[in-house]
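Rotation project, supervised by the postdoc (A.L.). Task for the rotation student: set up a whole-complex structure prediction and record inputs and outputs verbatim in this book. Inputs entered:
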Amino acid sequence: MSLEQFSKRDASPGYIFYNAEPTPKSGWEYFKRGFSRAIKGELFVGLKIVLVEMLRKGNSHTISYPQEKIEMAPRYRAIHKLLKLQESGSERCIGCGLCEKICIANCIRMETKLDENSRKEVSQYTINFGRCIFCGYCAEVCPELAIVHSGDYENASEQRAHFGLKEDMLTPLDEFKANKQKEFPGFGALSDDADSFVKKTPLAY
Amino acid sequence: MIKVTIDGVECKAEEGEFVLNIARANDIFIPALCYISNCSPTLACRLCLVEVDGKRAYSCNAKAKDGMSIITKNEEIEKERRAIMEVYDVNHPLECGVCDQSGECELQNYTLEMEVDSQSHCIADMPRPTQNWGKIHYDSSLCIVCERCVTVCKDMIGESALKTVKRGGPELDKGWKDKMPKDAYAMWNKLQKATIGVASGADTLDCTMCGECTSVCPVGALVGSDFQYTANAWELKKIPAANPHSSDCSLIYYDVRHDNISNTNDKIYRVSNDYSFSPIHGGIRYGYDFENVVEGKDKEAFERVINLMKTEVDTIEFDSFITNEEALILQKLKDKFGYKLVNNDAYMYRKFLDNFASTSGVNLYNGDLKTVQNSNFVVSVGTALKTDSPNSGFAFNNALVMNKGAGLYFHPLGDPVVEGYSKNILSVQHKVGAEEAVLYLILDLFGKNLPVETADYLKSFHTICKQTVGEGDETKEIEIDENSLFELAGIEDFSEKLPKLLAKKDKFSLIVGEDLYAHPKSKNLAKLLGLIQKYTDFSVVIIPSQTNTLGVSMICDLNKKKGEFTLGYNVKADVTLSALGKGDLDMPALNQQEGTFTNINKRVVPTNVALPFNGYCLNDIANELGLDAENTIDYTEELPTRRGFKSVEFDSLPNEFTSAGVENRGYLLSEKIVTSKDEVDEIENIKDFSSPIYLANPVHQFNAFTNKAHQLCQAGSLYVSSEFLEKRELQNGDMVEVEGGDGFKLTIRVELDPMISGDIPYLPTFDTKLNAKQFFPSGYRYADVSIRGVK
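Outputs recorded:
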């Protein structure tokens, strides 16, 4: 085991400090920086495209949002959902911690404990959506298809904490009872021909 | 040295070494599930199958001979191994997702290694309920019956608390015999019949709960109940450290992870160890969360302490649960400001070592736990081995079991656990205070070319008397050599049993402990010990009583008497610096510090920071008082070389075992030769004890820090044997009043300790509220008291 990590006594964990361009000191320097950032040749290329598209007839790409909404494709990756088991209604998540491990943005965190039925219980589960990059790894790695991406892209709120907790992501009970939880066809779900890859195990019963 | 060839690689080895160990030492991979280094091979898994000179053999019990040629892999072997792994996977619950072992599971690893992607075996399963054994949780359905737990408990720990028991359930169909490789079939046949159970047949484990079985378990069958389902292997960061509670300072890893979803601060979830090479005791396995949590720097308190140190303080009192660097800081403060350094424990130990050196000629004892492990005759004197230094007990037991050894255990308190190590251990309960006679007895029995005076003195104990034996006409007169040393020690003459114990023994070890250091005759005891090291085949180990007693005694020039105003470091005094969180200024506990310890093996071993500490440490105080070091560990280089330390930077100290099991941790203290004289005193009787009590801690407890840990936290009692309860007609849990010779009184609960025998109860030191040390003013571990029942 390498002991090198223990010899770094001053650095805060894991941060790399980046020295950006120096801050301007005088008014003239501010003007120079502003000008060089704002006026570029590419600006006019963009303006030309906008102008051409504007003048072309029958070329509207917009819909009247929010009256009209686009149905997202199954593989679209927006705010996560936690699903329940269709048969028993209990949570699908078994607390294996794979999503926490694989998360490259390091935004998933869970707490597990032994519950009164001697099973592993997920007592807390959070996703920091301020950090999440919606890569879909968590849904892909989930062995139980418990965490999936939904199509809910409307994630505007006063506080980002409104999304990150387990209760917000878990299928609500009334929705579940009304049989509204749909099996997820998107990221990480089994393919249609998954059965054909299964090697059968003999049974002694 | 011999040479063997493994997969074309030429390896050097000792004659008779196991092939598996040779392969491991040379970084050649042979899969094996059931074998643990230093323990006997069980042949449960059969994965280590190899081909030795064209014949099949199991590398874990195949002994190397010169010129052997070994192949670790061929088509046939691979077929066997794959079939074995398939069999292990039959009916193994598919719950890797929740299993605690997932990620470091050997069943997972080998299943992937053998590329098991389909199953061709099956048998009906049966219910296998989980069992809760207190601190240990056993899940029979996850168990693959590799018997590692059974092996380590018997061969290393010495308790044999676990065994394989009948599983019941369906028998293996004989039809499989023709359909599968034969080793896999044999393994399966055995596996199907067994599961792990408590050896005594009780409902729960009745051992010392060292938890080594949970450490060796390759799957999630045996886990710590407290750890179960709280964290996954891959989330835990391993921080290599040294055991902070006892002088073995074994290599441990603090497994840390963030506390919970809202608190990103690290928390220790468990302590793990390198079970192949260094077992650890329950005190550290469960007593890890003794950290001192403080919000931030308490400037006011700090300035007050500094002011007092500049003005009033003339003495610093401390114990030996500190690092070498801290000890050096204290010594430097002494040099600069003339403080008196008071540490009774290290003072006694130092005096003992000095007296030892005056006859042995070297300043350090010549043995360590490795020599104990390698010997085949072990003697222990003056220590309650099981609780004082469990790792010495492990080494003792390992020597008895693995080397077909024998041993003598001298102690006034009987210990069923030690007595249970082997049938070749003779437990001798001598009179309290008779250690002098015991050491003379060892000299008498084992001494070679003793100095004339000593030899003459020893001769004076022998009387030859004639006795007539036989019946009728065939009477014979024989001469019997009577040794009155036995009587002096208050023990039965065991010289008849001795020849059997000593048969074929060639490597001798002697372990001595804390009872001797503050003994009224400790000076002479130390000198006798010096003679034993010099004139017998014994290698001697003198157990440092606290974690860093040896280090402190080497680094600090200690004073005996306190001055007028005392600053206590982890000791209650006029002004107290405490890592227990009860003093005037908070200090970091040993899991929040980096530094080095000097352990029982005379090795300076490093320990790292597991948890952050936000307050002030001793180095800050020293810097404020005019010393200059950025970090405490800057002092590692400055440890006194005249005392055997080396000038080595902390960051360059290694802390690991190599795959061959070589301890590559820190460095060894070097010995110094001193002038010696073979002068010892004659036995002088010390006063008889009418109703002695002993100063010791129960299993798992070592100091106030172990008692702070949430799994070990308990109130101290007067610990007694069942014989004591019967004799005094007391019940477990009754209150008694203990009155010492100096009029100290203590009303305390009586608690039955099933792991001692005899009539002597003991008081613990881990519960500071009891202040048990007041009964033992000189530090000597026996005191005469009167015990009365209280209604």
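Student's summary: Residues 105 and 161 of chain A are 17 Å apart (CA to CA).
Supervisor addendum: Helices of chain A lie at 27-38, 42-55, 98-102, 137-141, 166-169, 173-177.
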